[in-house]
Amino acid sequence: MSAGMVAVIVVVCYLGLLLGLGLFSNRFFRGTAADYFLASHGIGPFLLLMSLFGTTMTAFALVGSSGEAFKAGIGVYGKMASWSGIIHSACFFLIGIKLWSFGKRHGYVTQIQFFRDRFESDKIGLVLFPILVGLVIPYLLIGVISSGTVIESLTGGAFPDLFPSANPRFIGAVPYWLGAAVICLVVMIYVFFGGVRGTAWANAFQTVVFMILGCVTFFVIADKLGGSAAATELVREYNPSRLKSTATGADEQVYAEKIGAWEKDAKAAVIKPKKPKSIPQLAFLSYLFIPLSVGMFPHLFQHWLTAKSAKSFRLPVILHPLMIMIVWVPCVMIGVWATSAVVAGKPVIPPNFGNANAVLALMVKKMTSPLLGGFLTAGILAAIMSSLDSQFLCIGSIFTNDIVAHYIAGDTLTDKQRVMYGRIFVVAIVLLTYLIAVFWKTKAVFPMAVWCFSGFASLFPLVFASLYWRRVTKMGAYACVMTVAVVWLYLFRDSGWGANREYLVFGMMPVATIIGCSTAALVFVSLATKPPSAATIEKFFGRS
Amino acid sequence: MKKLVFVMIVLLALVHQDFWWWDQIDPLVLGFIPIGLAYQAGVSVVAAILWALAVRYCWPAGLEGEASPLGERGDA
Question: pTM of the full predicted structure?
Fold first, then answer.
């Protein structure tokens, strides 16, 4: 049996289990909108921990972390993972708990409902709606495009008669359009029937799957490389700069020697060294702003509101940094080892291999069994789907509750109608995203990920001020949102619409500048305009 | 204690910058993890400990008591 066929069987079994779980969760559905969108505020600590973690960790946690470590070394962990450990928990603790409390007290389902009340402005929803949805859609596209690509890449040889291809790698592989369609269909079915409860259950299951697979893959690969110590020593010999955050003169010297040897006799040199790379200190620091996006993700807001009680947040707040560490450290080490891995006298990764995001899959394919390769495919899909499902549901929720129920029907929809509209919108959004992903399959969407995160992070001052600053005003909120829109668009355009992936502003990630501008706009305009009414202050801060 | 916990979290964010192992490989922790990565993994562990302290000592007072009675209405 071909490795591709093994992968197909494992993935089909996995998707079957996932569908079963999603459909089983429907047995607990109470038929109300509060249950469909918020699981009747009934999610306990463990499920909340797993669903928040599964939602915040995308496929990037597996394939992106190893790919970035391959390209730039261990510094990627400090830039992205350990900052996320600190900042995500801070958002859960400082933002999530308060929003949960207000949501439960006032019956909010979406962020926009909260902001409308807090800023005493019915129209703020119309300003926020296109921005929030516009920032989530590229994020959704990344998930759908990645799932189709992963399935196509890892199922080669499964059905040679059914799916011929001009590209030898893809002969017999499940085609991109079909792989993406199956993933969309599975996610749509369990979101349609299970609502947010089905999503939380599926996320918990998927989180367990990709955490276990990450660790198993690490140990198997380490063993094949002669042990983890031997694997690291090979990196020290050929690519020492990948084992630290910045390259020194000694690393440049090693590179010059090794590249000279490679150019003289590639076969004898075995490994072609990678050019040493350094992370500027200021850029490294500015990565702290990116995870603030968690405070403004609409799908995270929805998950927060599902909590049974404020106490349910305790486990996620404490364990989230450790879970990030468990997933990221093995993947980063695999990516670093990949730069210098040698098996039977040959490099595991070809010398001029350009697709860093495929490094993990290639290491697994060449160094482990087809079965583990199949499981890894399922693990990567798990990481993708555990974010996709929440995003589909939250967009359906925003359309239903903010646009149809509030602005069109004037808050007269019945509970059943809300559930019906929610489901219709979920189906419509899945279909729309799928069609865009099929007809506009482009890698150009990937650089947008960091820009989407930057957009959400730049709106963080809005949510933070709404919870902790009584004096913030409606006009301050509008100024903040408009400033984010204008500065974000300007910088995005200036970066060649995301094409310049090394784009920095004043030596920092662009998000630092946008957040500085949005904070200034929020503060100055708030101070210059009329404070909110006493009733609003009392509603959100109690009597002073 | 509340202030101390928040000061420690701010300190953690400062030392996250890694002024000590930025261009070092050795010592290799457990024989294979470069010190820079081990340091950042340590930051994650300390973050979990500090957030546990925050949960213990800085928990917002009266939150659930305030929310629950009206929340029942929201559920209906």
Answer: 0.91
